[in-house]
Amino acid sequence: MSKKYNVIDLFCGCGGLSQGFIEADYNVILGIDHWKDAIETFNYNHKNSKGIVADLLNLDPQEIKTRYAIENVDLIVGGPPCQGFSIAGKRIIDDERNQLYKSFLRFVDYFKPKGFVMENVPNILSMGNGAVKSQILKDFKDIGYKINYNKLLASDFAVPQNRRRAFFVGLKNSLEFEFPKPITTDNKITSEEAISDLPKDSLEDGCQYTINPKSVFQREMRNGNKVVFNHQITNHSEKTVEIIGMVPDGGNYKDLPKELHETRKVNIAWTRLNSKKPSFTIDTGHRHHFHYEFNRVPTVRESARIQSFRDEFIFCGSKTSQYKQVGNAVPPLLAKEIALKIKNYL
């Protein structure tokens, strides 16, 4: 039997990063986030893990270790929010809004795992003319970790979405992590391959599929599952449906008559998925992006597919909350590729 490595997921949200590590056969012992809805979803889906609602700003790692009888942590993963990282200058990391990043650092320093994975927005690498990146490298070097960092595009790793994220991976013993090589550069999964087996209309939670799978990706996402959850459509006004209907597959507001260009004051408005390409980065439910064929926004399940969550992963809370949970998550298949690669170093 190969050893199962123990993982703690900080700022875990609903558990996309955790899901990827679980699929790579790690043991996620703990997930921590301040958002109750996300932890409810985390606990519902990760039966062998413990998700706790807590403010990481004020959380003492020693207290966590004692309370949950944690003996060994091999990896700490997570994506601390980065609101303060846009401040320029040398004292950038001392900005009070960056204390959540400091919490991540504090947990790594206390548990001293073999490695860590920190995920963030892509422009964290260029913020403050590179000052943020340099400070992060220094902070972790000071506590004994050698870091490599990279921007990864999710669609290069079998995720049907052109979502870019920055990853910092630190290892002890002077080992330098080499990031996984892209696996779907020339054969990216399209939006159509991701969601064309999900119907136009709502399905009640627990209903059987009404359409057979049409792609390898769809079969993988079903994973032997027989029923669907989180596929309730949004009912738009007649006017909205009429306007969406004027936008072609892969089009946007520029395809509309001039007088309708200003109906929504954002440049991403009235954008349809392109059925023949991966999705653009999905948002957290702002309702500006539409299905490539149907005149509506994607359902939570369709959004989850685009993020590479398998259909057995069920989202809890209100529909608004579910959209936000899906949109904020790390795509599990991208997380899995990193998780598999790190095994070589542990």
UniProtKB/TrEMBL annotation:
Reaction equations catalysed: a 2'-deoxycytidine in DNA + S-adenosyl-L-methionine = a 5-methyl-2'-deoxycytidine in DNA + S-adenosyl-L-homocysteine + H(+)
EC supergroup of this enzyme: transferase
Keyword Transferase attached: yes
Domain of life per record: Bacteria
InterPro entries attached to this UniProt entry: C5-Methyltransferase, C5_DNA_meth_AS, C5_MeTfrase, C5_meth_CS, SAM-dependent_MTases_sf
Active-site residues per Swiss-Prot or TrEMBL entry: C82
Protein keywords: Methyltransferase, Restriction system, S-adenosyl-L-methionine, Transferase
GO molecular function, one term: DNA (cytosine-5-)-methyltransferase activity
EC number: 2.1.1.37
Any one GO biological process: DNA restriction-modification system
TM region positions: none
Protein family per UniProt: Belongs to the class I-like SAM-binding methyltransferase superfamily. C5-methyltransferase family.
Alphabetized PANTHER family for the sequence: CYTOSINE-SPECIFIC METHYLTRANSFERASE, DNA (CYTOSINE-5)-METHYLTRANSFERASE 1
Protein name: Cytosine-specific methyltransferase
Organism ancestry: Bacteria, Pseudomonadati, Bacteroidota, Cytophagia, Cytophagales
